[in-house]
Amino acid sequence: MAKNPIIAAILSFLIPGLGEIYAGKTMMGIILVIIAIILTAAIYMVTFYAWIVYIIVWIYSIYDSYTTAKALE
């Protein structure tokens, strides 16, 4: 089933991993959501450097959900 890559990217922008779930990569989406939750907690509890990792995961999630949905068009 075709998925809109723009919607997938927007969903991943809002919550990392949500676009992957929308695009059909459910397991990858769940993993990215869990990583985002853990990193968010780490940001508040441990160190500022967790932000760098979080941003990398966030950008990857947007890119991956877009390309996955684009491939399904």
From TrEMBL:
<protein>
    <recommendedName>
        <fullName>TM2 domain-containing protein</fullName>
    </recommendedName>
</protein>
<keyword id="KW-1133">Transmembrane helix</keyword>
<keyword id="KW-0812">Transmembrane</keyword>
<keyword id="KW-0472">Membrane</keyword>
<feature type="transmembrane region" description="Helical">
    <location>
        <begin position="29"/>
        <end position="60"/>
    </location>
</feature>
